[in-house]
Specification:
The complex is a heteropentamer.
Chain A (H helix, E strand, L loop, with lengths): L4 E8 L6 H18 L9 E8 L4 H13 L4 E4 L3 H17 L6 E4 L16 E3 L4 H13 L6 E7 L2 H17 L4 E8 L8 H10 L3 E4 L4 H13 L4 E4 L7 H5 L7 E5 L7 H14 L7 H16 L4 H8 L3 E4 L2 E5 L6 E2 L2 E8 L13 E9 L1 H4 L15
Parallel strand pairs in A: 1-2, 1-3, 3-4, 4-5, 6-7, 6-8, 8-9, 9-10
Antiparallel strand pairs in A: 10-14, 11-12, 12-13, 14-15
Helix pairs in contact in A: 1-10, 2-3, 4-5, 6-7, 10-11
Chain B lengths: L1 H32 L3 H27 L7 H21 L9 H20 L4 H21 L1 H4 L5 E2 L16 H23 L2 H11 L1 H5 L5 H27 L1 E2 L6 H14 L6 H19 L3 H15 L3 H14 L7 H30 L6 E4 L2 E4 L3 H45 L1
Antiparallel strand pairs in B: 1-2, 3-4
Helix pairs in contact in B: 1-7, 2-7, 2-10, 2-11, 2-12, 3-4, 3-10, 4-10, 7-10, 8-10, 11-12, 12-14, 15-16
Chain D lengths: L1 E10 L2 E11 L4 E6 L5 H9 L3 E8 L2 E2 L5 H6 L2 E4 L11 H8 L11 H7 L1 H5 L10 H14 L4 E5 L7 H16 L3 E5 L3 H7 L2 E6 L2 E6 L1 H6 L1 H8 L2
Parallel strand pairs in D: 3-8, 3-9, 6-7, 7-8
Antiparallel strand pairs in D: 1-2, 1-4, 4-5, 9-10
Helix pairs in contact in D: 3-6
The complex binds adenosine-5'-triphosphate (ATP) (2 copies), leucine and magnesium ion (2 copies).
One magnesium ion binds next to helix 1 of chain E.
GO molecular function (chain D): ATP binding; ATP hydrolysis activity; branched-chain amino acid transmembrane transporter activity
GO biological process, one term (chain D): L-amino acid transport
Keywords (chain D): Amino-acid transport, ATP-binding, Cell membrane, Membrane, Nucleotide-binding, Transport
Chain lengths: 392, 432, 341, 231, 256
C-alpha cells in the first residue's frame, strides 16, 4: 500500500449560511492531508481530498456521493448535520450490498446524533467526534457543581442533532440536578433564521439564568449577537462556540459567560498548537475540527495493519482500533464505531499567558475549565452491528 | 371537400407515426449508446424532467396559467411515492409492485392538485401566479417543519429493491429503472399530446386567450382551469413518483421555489408555444444541472444570461427558433442563410470562449486560490496571475463582440427580407 | 410587559424593513405593471454594495450612494433589457426579471463569495437606542441608550432589555420613505402618465409624454429603494447570497396581501406580517395544549404525537404564506387593493 | 403649415403608403376620405411618428419625419386615434389631465370648455373611463387631445358609434375649432358630414392620394366617387 | 308563466345601479320568439348594459329577466348561454391565438354535448367539424379557415365575432353594434349576412346606423337614460317626436 493514493470525498456545505463551516473543514482536511501524507502516516499513503458542496441538502449529498463513487473514491467524509449523516449511512449500506467489490466507508467527522451509533449503527460508519450524549454527560457533570444555575432555557435547531441535545439535556439534568427548572424550550429551523431577536426576547422574558444550545454556525453566531444586542446577561452552554464566525460574534461582551463542551480546544499545546498557528498563517482562519486529525491518524494506522487501502479491509482494521491522536490514546469502539476520547469544558475569556491562542483576532480565547477522561463521558450503546465477513 | 380532407390528413399521420416510432426507438436504444452509469442516470432524469416540464406547460403554454409552485405537485408525488415504497417494502409485496410507484405519485399529484387547485384556479393571471407562489412556499416551509411526513432535513429515503428478483428484474440495477422510466415517459408524453387534441385541451387554449368570452360560449373558465390543473398535477406527480424510484431519497427542495422556478425557466427556454418545446427544456434542464454544473462553477451565471437573452431575442424559446427555421426551409429559403449562420456562429463562439475564460478566471480567484493559480479551460491552462492572459481574453471578447454585432445586423436584415418574401408568398397562395 | 413591548418593536421594525422593500416593488408594479422578480436581488446588491462602499467612504456616505448606484443599475437594466421585451407582454417581462435574479445572485457570489460577509453597522448604530428596565415589583422603567450597568441584573435589580439602534434607525428611515413616496405619487403627474402608458403607450406618447424615460426613472427609483433597504437590512441582519431568496418570497406576500399596487396596503401588510411573525415565535401554545385547555381529553400517546406538539412558534415562518392564501381566497384584491390587474 | 411629400410608410415589412402628398393650411379643415384599408389611418400614424416612414413631412418649416411621437406632439400636432385608446382605469378628469402637456403654462382650452361642449362628460367626471359607453369614450378622446392645445388636430373617424344627434354636435364642434384657427385633418367614413364641413377633400386609394380638391368638386366627380369611395 | 308560448326574452322592471348612478331605470320589455328587435338610443343610454344584464355578464340590481319561460337573472353567463342565449360584443372579443376554425369549433363544442371531455379526439367529432364547416361557409370565411383570428382584417373579425355568437345554435341572439366601423357598402353586405344567419331566431341588436336599424328590425326599442321610451314598429318610432328629439336629431337622421 505504500505510495498509494487514498482519495477522500468531503461532502459538506460550501455555500450558504453554513458555508463558512464547510469551507473551513475542507481547508482543514487539505491542510492535514498534506501533513499526514507519505512519511506522515505509518502506512505511507498519500491522502487526497476532493470537496463536494452538498448545500446542506441530503439528496444533494447522495448525488455527490454517487459522483464520488463514480470517480473511484471509496472514502466518504461528512459531518455537518446529523440528518444528512443518517441518510449517508443508509445510502452506503444500500450501495455496499448492491455493489459488492465497490464498498465505501463513511468517516463521520462531526455529526453527533447518538442514534447514528445506536439504533442506526452500521459497520461502514465510523464517528470520530464525541456524540451528544457523551458531551451532555460531561456538561451536566459540570452543572451539578454550579448551584447558581437554577433556570435553564433550551434553544436548538429543529433537526436530529438539536432534538438530541434538548432530549439529553432534559434527561440528564433531571437525573443530576432535579431542582433545575427548564423555563423554556425552543426549536428553530436549521440555517434559516436571520433574526434571532424574537427568540432572545423570549429567553429574557423567561428569566433564564442559563441557556443550553447545540446550535452551530450562523445559528449560534446570530443567536449570540442578538443576545448581546438585547443585553442578555445569562450564561450560554454550547457545543460549538469555536466554529467560524462565532468567536467574533461572542466578542468581549460575552466574557466569562459562554462555555463550550468539546473533544478539543484552542490551547491544547504541543504539536497541535504549532499546527493551529500554521493553519491560521496560511488561511487566516482557525482550525477547530480536530476529528480530522483523528480520521487521518486512524486511516494511516488501519491501512498499515490491513496492509491495504481496500475499503473493506480498512473498515475491519479500524473497527476496535486503538491509536494515538492529539488528545492521547483513543479507541474506535468495536461495538458501535464511536470513538472513545477525553472531553474538555472551556470558557470564553481574555487571552493570557496560559491561554495564548486567540481565534479571529478577538483578543479572547476559550480557556480550559475542566477535562473529562474518556471513561467519564463514555455512554453505553445499544448497537447490534451487522458485520460482514472479514476478507481473507 | 372530402377529397381535400383526405389529402390533408394522410401525410400528417404518416409523419406522426414516424415521429412517435422514432421517439420510442431513441428511448429504447439510448442506453446502448451512452452506457456509463452517469449517462443512464442522466437519461432517466431527463425522462422525469420532460414529463415535469410538459405538465408544467399544460398550465403555462396551453392554459396561460403562470405557476410558481408546480414543484409542489411533483414533489408531493415524490414524497407519497417514497412512503408507498417504504410500505411496499414492509408489506412484502412482489417486485413488480415497484413499477406502479410512479402511478401512485401521479395520484398523489392529482389529489393535491384537487385540493389546492380548488383555490388556485379560482383566479387567472397575476392572482393565479401569486397564489401558486403562496401555496408553493407554504408547502416548502411546511416540509421543513413537519417531520413525520417530510422527514426534516434528512428527508425520506427508501430502498427500491423490495424483494427477490422477478423474471430477473429487481429494479436494483440502474438500467432496469431506466427502462421503467422510459416506458412511463413514452406513455405520458403520448397521453399529454393526445390530450391537446381533445375538447378540454382546446377549450383551455380559448380560456388562455380570452376567459371572458369563453363564458359566452357555454364554458365556465374556472372549471376548465381546475380540470386542467388536476391533469397537470397528475402528470407532475408521475414525474415525482419516478424520481422516488430513481433517487431513493427525497428532501424538501423538491417542493421548493427553486425547483418550481427551474420548471418555469426550462419550459420557457424550450419554448412554451409548441408542444415539444418543454421536451427540449427538460433535456436541457438535466444537462445543465448535471453536466454543465460539473464543467463549470459559473454555470448558473451562464444559464441566467442565456435565459435573459432568449427572452429578449427569441421569446418563443428553442422550439420557436426551430419552427422559424423550419418555416424558412419549407419555403426553400434556409439555404441562403448559411453564410450568415456561419458568421454568427463563429463570432458567437469566440465571444463565448473569451467570456467564458474571463468568468472562469474570476470565479477561480474568488473560490479556489488555495488550489493554485492555474485554471484549466477547454484544454488550455490559464494562469490567473498572468496579466497577458487577462488582456488577451478581454481583447478577444471585445473584438468578437464587435464582429458578432456586425454579423447580427446583416443577418437580421437578411432575415427580415426573407420573411417579407414569405409573407408575400403566403398572400399569393391565399388569393389563388 | 417589557417582553410585549420589545416584541412589538421587533415586529414593527422588521415589518418596516419589509415595507422598504415592498414599496419599491409596489411602485414598479403599480406604475409599470411589471412584477419585478429580481426586486429582492436588488436588495441584496444594495447590501453587498453597502458593504463594499462603506469600507471606502464609510457607512453614512454609503447609505446615500448605494441607493443611487443600485437605482442606476436598475435603470440600465430597464433600458437595455426590460424595455426590449415590453412588447411581448407581461409574462416575458416577468421572465427577464426572473432570469436577472439568477444573474445577480451569481454575480454577487462571483464578487463577494458564497458565504456571508461581515457587514456591521457603524459605531453609532451598534449600541442601543433605549433600554426598558423591568423591576421585580412589576414596574417598567425607560432609559435612552444603554442603561447604567448597576441598575441591571446581576448588579442591580432590574431586567434590562436593550433595543438596538439599528432597528430604531430602520424604523425612522422607513417612515421617512413612506411620506416622501406618498408625496411623489399624489403630488406628481408621473403616476398618471405611467398608468396610462401601461394601457396605451402609443397614445400617451402621442399626447406628448416621453414614456420610455419615465419608465426608466420609475424602475430606477423602485430598485433604488430596494438598494436603500439593502444597506439597512444587510447591516442589521446578515449579508449573504440567500438573503434575496428568503426575503423575496415574503416581499411578494406583502405586496399581494396589501393589494397589488397599493402603497398603503403594502404598509399595512408589512406591519401585519412583521408583527405576526415576531409574536408567533413567542407563543408556545401547541395544538395539544390548546385542546387540553379547551377541555379535550388526550391520551398521553396522542399528546406525544407530532401534530399535537406542533407549536405556533414553529409555524411562524408559515404564517405569511397562509395569510397570503387566505387573503387571496377571501379578498382577491388584497387588503387595500381595489383594482383587478 | 403641414406639408407632406412623397411619403412612404411601412408596418414592419409591409409597404402601406406609396408616395402620399398633400398640404394643410392654417385654420383649414381637410377631409381625408377613402375605403376601408386604403391607408388613411396609416397616414395619421405616419405624421405622428407611430410608424416607420420615408419621405418628407414638414411641419411649420421643420422636418418631423422620424421624430418620436412625444416630440411631434410637443410641436403642436394633436391626434385622436380611431381606436380611441382611453385610459380605462383613470377617471374622466384624469384622462383629460393627461392631455395637458407638461411645461406649458397657458392653454386655450380649459376643463370647463370641454364640459360645456359635452355635458355628459361633466356628469361622469369622476367615473373610471373604462366603463363609459362607446360614445362617451369617443367624446372623451376628442377632448383629451384638445387639452394639449394643438394647432393641427388629426381626427380619425370621430363619429363612429355616435348617435346621430351627437354626430351633429361633433360636426358643429369641428367648426368651432376652425373658428379658433385650429387646422383639422379629418378622416371620415361618413361622406355627408365630411363634405359638409370641410374646406378641402382628399381621397386616398391604395396608399396614395388620388383626388385633392374642394368638396363641391368631389360631389361633381362621379368617377372618383365610384372608383375610390363606393364599392 | 301563464301564457302557453312564453316570450323568448322578457324583462320585468329591471334596474341596474353602478355605485350611486342608476344606469337602467326599470325596463320592461318582452320579445316574442322569432322577432327581430333593434335597440337604439343615445350614447350612454345603457344599451350595452342591457345586453350585459341579459347575457349574465352582471346581474340586475332589481327586477327579473326571463328566457323562454325560465328565470335567468343572477345566473352566471355560461349558464345562460347553455340555456340558449348568445351575444356578440361591441368591441371584438375573440380568441386571438386560435385559428378561425378553432374559434368556431370551441364555440360549437358545448352545444353538441362535448363539454369538458378529454377522452375523445376533436378530429373524430364528425358532427362538430360538419357544423364548423357549415358556419365557415355561412360567414364566407372558408378561405381564412386556418388564419389566426388576430391576423384577420377588421371586417373579417366582425364576421367571425358573429359566427362565434351563433355557432352554439342559440335561439336568442344579441348583437351589439355589429356593423360599427364598416363602410357603407360593407355594411349592406353585412346586414344581408345577419339576416341570413339569424333566420328563425330571436334577434336583438344595438345599432346607431339607422340604415341597418330600419333594414333589419321588425320592431324598435328606444332607450334613453336607462328608460324605454318607445317600443314599436319602425315607422311608428321614426314618427315619434320624443324619439326624434332625444336621439335622431333633425337633418342627418332624415338623410339616412
Ligand atoms: N399594425 C398593422 N400591421 C400590419 N398591417 C397593418 C397594420 N395596421 C394596418 N395595416 C394594414 O394597412 C393598410 C391600411 O390600413 P389603415 O388602417 O391605414 O386603413 P384605413 O384607411 O384607415 O381603413 P379603416 O377604414 O379600416 O380604418 C390595411 O391594408 C391594413 O391591413
Ligand atoms: N361597470 C360600470 N360601472 C359604472 N358605470 C358603468 C359601468 N358600465 C357602464 N356604465 C355606465 O353606464 C352607462 C351606459 O353604458 P352603455 O355602455 O350601456 O351605453 P350604450 O347605450 O351602449 O352607449 P353607446 O351607444 O355609446 O355604446 C354609461 O354612462 C357608462 O358610463
Ligand atoms: C459540524 C457540526 C456542528 C454538526 C452537528 N454537530 C450535527 O451533528 O449535525
Ligand atoms: Mg382607419
Ligand atoms: Mg354600447
Amino acid at each position: 500500500q505504500r505510495g498509494e493514493t487514498v482519495r477522500i470525498a468531503l461532502i459538506d456545505p460550501q455555500s450558504g449560511l453554513m458555508g463558512p463551516v464547510g469551507i473551513n473543514q475542507l481547508r482543514s482536511f487539505q491542510f492535514f492531508a498534506e501533513k499526514f501524507s507519505g512519511a506522515g502516516n505509518p502506512a505511507g499513503v498519500r491522502f487526497e481530498i476532493e470537496g463536494f458542496d452538498n448545500k446542506l441538502s441530503a439528496s444533494e449529498t447522495l448525488t455527490a456521493m454517487q459522483a464520488a463513487i463514480g470517480r473511484g473514491i471509496r472514502f466518504i467524509s461528512q459531518g455537518n448535520s446529523s440528518g444528512i449523516a443518517g441518510a449517508i449511512i443508509e445510502a452506503v449500506n444500500r450501495h455496499n450490498s448492491r455493489n459488492p467489490g465497490q464498498e465505501v466507508v463513511f468517516l463521520n467527522h462531526s455529526a453527533v446524533d447518538p442514534d447514528l451509533t445506536n439504533s442506526r449503527c452500521s459497520f461502514w460508519h465510523f464517528r470520530f467526534d464525541a456524540d451528544t450524549s457523551m458531551k451532555m454527560e460531561a456538561l451536566t457533570t459540570f452543572i451539578r457543581g454550579e448551584p447558581t444555575i437554577r433556570r435553564v432555557f433550551l434553544i436548538n435547531q429543529n433537526y436530529a442533532h438539536g432534538h438530541q441535545v434538548a432530549r439529553f439535556a432534559k434527561e440528564m439534568l433531571a437525573r443530576k440536578r432535579p431542582d433545575i427548572q427548564i423555563v423554556g424550550e425552543d426549536l428553530h429551523p436549521l440555517a434559516q433564521v436571520r433574526d434571532f431577536a424574537p427568540y432572545v426576547a423570549k429567553i429574557m422574558a423567561s428569566g433564564a439564568d442559563s441557556v443550553i444550545t447545540g446550535n452551530w454556525g450562523s445559528d449560534l453566531t446570530l443567536l449570540i449577537r442578538a443576545a448581546n444586542d438585547a443585553g442578555y446577561r445569562g450564561r450560554f452552554f454550547t457545543y460549538y462556540a469555536g466554529v467560524t464566525g462565532t468567536p467574533t460574534a461572542l466578542g468581549t461582551a460575552s466574557e466569562g459567560r459562554v462555555y463550550q463542551i468539546a473533544y478539543n480546544h484552542y490551547n491544547m499545546g504541543g504539536q497541535m498548537q504549532t499546527w493551529m498557528n500554521e493553519f491560521r498563517q496560511r488561511f487566516n482562519d482557525d482550525f477547530y475540527t480536530g476529528s480530522i486529525i483523528h480520521i487521518l491518524n486512524a486511516l494511516g494506522v488501519a491501512m498499515q495493519n490491513a496492509r491495504s487501502t481496500n475499503a473493506v479491509r480498512v473498515a475491519h482494521a479500524m473497527s476496535g482500533l486503538r491509536f494515538n491522536s492529539f488528545s492521547g490514546p483513543v479507541e474506535m469502539r468495536r461495538a458501535d464505531h464511536q470513538l472513545q476520547q477525553p472531553l474538555f469544558l472551556t470558557r470564553w475569556q481574555r487571552v493570557d499567558a496560559q491561554h495564548p491562542y486567540s481565534p479571529e483576532n478577538t483578543g479572547m480565547t476559550l480557556a480550559l475549565v475542566r477535562r473529562f477522561d474518556a471513561y467519564v463521558a463514555s455512554t453505553p450503546t445499544s448497537c447490534a452491528m451487522q458485520r460482514p465477513a472479514a476478507p481473507v | 371537400m372530402t377529397a381535400t380532407k383526405y389529402y390533408q390528413f394522410r401525410p400528417i399521420n404518416v409523419g406522426r407515426w414516424f415521429i412517435w416510432s422514432l421517439f420510442a426507438l431513441v428511448l429504447l436504444l439510448a442506453p446502448l449508446v451512452f452506457d456509463s452509469s452517469i449517462a443512464i442516470s442522466m437519461m432517466a432524469q431527463m425522462g422525469i424532467a420532460i414529463i415535469a416540464c410538459l405538465s408544467f406547460n399544460m398550465l403555462l403554454g396551453q392554459g396561460g396559467m403562470l405557476s410558481f409552485g408546480h414543484a409542489v405537485y411533483a414533489g408531493l408525488g415524490t414524497y407519497v411515492a417514497m412512503h408507498a415504497l417504504l410500505l411496499l417494502g414492509d408489506a412484502g409485496l412482489p417486485v413488480p409492485a415497484v413499477a406502479l410507484i410512479p402511478l401512485i405519485g401521479g395520484f398523489a399529484g392529482l389529489f393535491f392538485a384537487l385540493l389546492f387547485g380548488y383555490v388556485t384556479t379560482k383566479k387567472a393571471g397575476t392572482a393565479f401566479a401569486m397564489i401558486t407562489l403562496g401555496v408553493g412556499e407554504l408547502i416548502f416551509i411546511a416540509s421543513m417543519v413537519f417531520f413525520i411526513f417530510f422527514g426534516g432535513e434528512a428527508g425520506v429515503s427508501a430502498d427500491r429493491v423490495i424483494g427477490e428478483p422477478f423474471w430477473g428484474i429487481s429494479f436494483g440495477p440502474l438500467i432496469e429503472v431506466y427502462y421503467l422510466i422510459a416506458v412511463y415517459t413514452f406513455l405520458c408524453v403520448a397521453l399529454m399530446f393526445a390530450y391537446t387534441r381533445t375538447p378540454l385541451g382546446r377549450i383551455i387554449n380559448a380560456v388562455r386567450d380570452n376567459p371572458e368570452r369563453v363564458e359566452f360560449i357555454g364554458y365556465d373558465p374556472q372549471t376548465v382551469r381546475y380540470l386542467v390543473f388536476m391533469i397537470a398535477g397528475f402528470f407532475a406527480g408521475i414525474a415525482g413518483g419516478m424520481a422516488a424510484v430513481l433517487f431513493e431519497i427525497v428532501t424538501s427542495e423538491v417542493v421548493g421555489p427553486i425547483r418550481s422556478g427551474s420548471y418555469l425557466l426550462f419550459a420557457f427556454l424550450g419554448g412554451v408555444t409548441f408542444f415539444f418545446g418543454p421536451i427540449i427544456g427538460g433535456i436541457l434542464m438535466v444537462l445543465a444541472f448535471v453536466m454543465f454544473s460539473e464543467i463549470t462553477k459559473a454555470w448558473m451565471l451562464y444559464l441566467g444570461l442565456i435565459f435573459v437573452f432568449m427572452v429578449m431575442y427569441a421569446p418563443g424559446g428553442i422550439a420557436g427558433l426551430i419552427m422559424m427555421n423550419l418555416r424558412l426551409a419549407m419555403f426553400g429559403r434556409l439555404g441562403e442563410l448559411w453564410a450568415s449562420y456561419l458568421g454568427l456562429g463563429a463570432t458567437a463562439l469566440a465571444l463565448l470562449v473569451s467570456m467564458g475564460a474571463l468568468i472562469e478566471m474570476i470565479y477561480h480567484l474568488q473560490l479556489g486560490t488555495a488550489m493554485g493559480d492555474v485554471v484549466p479551460f477547454l484544454g488550455m491552462s490559464l494562469n490567473t496571475l498572468d496579466l497577458d492572459v487577462w488582456f488577451g481574453a478581454v481583447f478577444v471578447a471585445l473584438t468578437s463582440f464587435g464582429l458578432f454585432e456586425l454579423c447580427r445586423r446583416s443577418f437580421s436584415q437578411q432575415w427580415a427580407a426573407i420573411q417579407t418574401d414569405i409573407e408575400k408568398e403566403i398572400k399569393r397562395r391565399e388569393t389563388t | 410587559m417589557e417582553f410585549f413591548i420589545i416584541s412589538l418593536l421587533n415586529g414593527i421594525s422588521f415589518g418596516l424593513l419589509l415595507f422598504m422593500l415592498s414599496s419599491g416593488l409596489t411602485l414598479i408594479f403599480s406604475m409599470m405593471g411589471v412584477l419585478n422578480f429580481a426586486h429582492a436581488s436588488f436588495y441584496m446588491v444594495g447590501a453587498y454594495m453597502g458593504f463594499a462602499v462603506s469600507q471606502i467612504v464609510g457607512f453614512w456616505a454609503a447609505l446615500l450612494l448605494v441607493p443611487l448606484l443600485v437605482g442606476l443599475l436598475g435603470a440600465l437594466f430597464e433600458k437595455y433589457s426590460l424595455r426590449k421585451v415590453h412588447k411581448y407582454g407581461h409574462v416575458p417581462e416577468l421572465m427577464v426579471t426572473f432570469g436577472l435574479s439568477y444573474i445577480i445572485l451569481e454575480l454577487v457570489q462571483l464578487i463577494w463569495g458564497r458565504i456571508a460577509v461581515e457587514f456591521r453597522p457603524p459605531e453609532l448604530l451598534q449600541g442601543s437606542a433605549f433600554t426598558l428596565l423591568s423591576q421585580p415589583d412589576g414596574s417598567l422603567g425607560f432609559a435612552w441608550g444603554r442603561a447604567a450597568l448597576e441598575q441591571c441584573q446581576p448588579l442591580g435589580t432590574a431586567i434590562c432589555s436593550l433595543f438596538p439602534a439599528t432597528r430604531a434607525f430602520i424604523m425612522g428611515v422607513a417612515l421617512l420613505m413612506l411620506v416622501s413616496l406618498w408625496l411623489l405619487i399624489t403630488r406628481t403627474r408621473v403616476g398618471l402618465v405611467i398608468q396610462a402608458a401601461l394601457k396605451h403607450p402609443e397614445m400617451v406618447e402621442a399626447l406628448g409624454h416621453n414614456v420610455p424615460r419615465v419608465f426608466m426613472l420609475v424602475f430606477g427609483a423602485g430598485t433604488g429603494l430596494a438598494g436603500l433597504a439593502g444597506v439597512m437590512g444587510g447591516s442589521t441582519f446578515v449579508t449573504e447570497p440567500a438573503m434575496a431568496l428568503t426575503l423575496g418570497a415574503i416581499v411578494f406576500v406583502v405586496v399581494v396581501v396589501g393589494g397589488l399596487g397599493s402603497l398603503a396596503g403594502a404598509f399595512l401588510a408589512s406591519l401585519l406580517i412583521g408583527v405576526m411573525q415576531t409574536f408567533a415565535v413567542a407563543i408556545d401554545q401547541s395544538l395539544g395544549s390548546m385542546l387540553l385547555a379547551m377541555g379535550v381529553a388526550l391520551s398521553a400517546e396522542a399528546q406525544a404525537h407530532e401534530l399535537m406538539r406542533f407549536t405556533l412558534s414553529k409555524a411562524a415562518p408559515l404564517l405569511p404564506f397562509l395569510l397570503l392564501v387566505l387573503v387571496l381566497i377571501f379578498r382577491p384584491h388584497g387588503l387595500l387593493g381595489n383594482r383587478d390587474h | 403649415m403641414l406639408e407632406i411629400d412623397n411619403l412612404h410608410a411601412f408596418y414592419g415589412k409591409s409597404h402601406i403608403l406609396h408616395g402620399v402628398q398633400f398640404k394643410v393650411a392654417p385654420g383649414e379643415i381637410v377631409a381625408l376620405l377613402g375605403r376601408n384599408g386604403s391607408g388613411r389611418s396609416t397616414t395619421a400614424k405616419a405624421i405622428m411618428g407611430l410608424v416607420d416612414t420615408e419621405g418628407s413631412i414638414v411641419w411649420k418649416g421643420q422636418r418631423i419625419g422620424g421624430r418620436k411621437p412625444y416630440e411631434v406632439a410637443h410641436l403642436g400636432i394633436g391626434y385622436v386615434p380611431e381606436s380611441r385608446d382611453i385610459f380605462p382605469k383613470l377617471t374622466v378628469q384624469q384622462n383629460l389631465l393627461l392631455g395637458v402637456k407638461s411645461g406649458r403654462s397657458k392653454n386655450s382650452w380649459s376643463f370647463d370648455d370641454m364640459y360645456a361642449m359635452f355635458p355628459r362628460l361633466k356628469e361622469r367626471e369622476h367615473t373610471e373611463a373604462g366603463v363609459l359607453s362607446g360614445g362617451e369614450q369617443q367624446m372623451l378622446t376628442l377632448c383629451r387631445t384638445l387639452m394639449g392645445d394643438p394647432e393641427l388636430i388629426i381626427i380619425d373617424e370621430p363619429t363612429e358609434g355616435l348617435a346621430p344627434k351627437i354626430v351633429e354636435q361633433v360636426a358643429a364642434f369641428l367648426q368651432t375649432l376652425k373658428a379658433r384657427r385650429v387646422s383639422v385633418l379629418l378622416i371620415e367614413q361618413k361622406l355627408t358630414i365630411a363634405l359638409q364641413i370641410s374646406d378641402r377633400a382628399l381621397v386616398m386609394g391604395h396608399g396614395s392620394i388620388v383626388f385633392d380638391d374642394t368638396p363641391a368638386a368631389l360631389q361633381e366627380n362621379r368617377y372618383i366617387r365610384r372608383e375610390w369611395l363606393e364599392v | 308563466m301563464s301564457s302557453a308560448a312564453p316570450y323568448a326574452i322578457e324583462l320585468k322592471g329591471v334596474c341596474k345601479r353602478f355605485g350611486k348612478t342608476e344606469i337602467i331605470r326599470g325596463v320592461d320589455l318582452a320579445v316574442a320568439a322569432g322577432e327581430r328587435v333593434a335597440i337604439i338610443g343615445p350614447n350612454g343610454a345603457g344599451k350595452s348594459t342591457l345586453f350585459n344584464l341579459m347575457s349574465g355578464r352582471f346581474g340586475p340590481s332589481s327586477g327579473e329577466i326571463w328566457l323562454n319561460g325560465q328565470r335567468i337573472d343572477g345566473k352566471p353567463a355560461y349558464a345562460i348561454n347553455r340555456m340558449g342565449l348568445s351575444r356578440s360584443f361591441q368591441i371584438t372579443n375573440l380568441f386571438p391565438k386560435l385559428s378561425v376554425f378553432e374559434n368556431l369549433r370551441c364555440a360549437v363544442l358545448w352545444s353538441l354535448g362535448y363539454r369538458y371531455t378529454f377522452l375523445k379526439f376533436l378530429a373524430d367529432l364528425e358532427d362538430v367539424i360538419e357544423r364548423v364547416d357549415a358556419l365557415l361557409h355561412l360567414m364566407r370565411l372558408e378561405k381564412k379557415r386556418d388564419t389566426l383570428a388576430m391576423n384577420l382584417s377588421y371586417a373579417e373579425q366582425r364576421a367571425l365575432e358573429i359566427g362565434v355568437t351563433i355557432a352554439g345554435g342559440a335561439g336568442v341572439v344579441l348583437l351589439d353594434e355589429p356593423t360599427a366601423g364598416m363602410s357603407k357598402s360593407e355594411t349592406k353586405r353585412f346586414i344581408d349576412l345577419i339576416r341570413e344567419v339569424t333566420e328563425g331566431k330571436t334577434l336583438l341588436t344595438v345599432e346607431h346606423d339607422m340604415g341597418v336599424v330600419f333594414g333589419l328590425a321588425d320592431k324598435i326599442a328606444v332607450l334613453v337614460y336607462g328608460e324605454l321610451i318607445a317600443f314599436d314598429t319602425p315607422e311608428a318610432v321614426r314618427a315619434n317626436p320624443r324619439v326624434q328629439e332625444a336621439y335622431l336629431g333633425s337633418v342627418l337622421a332624415a338623410a339616412h
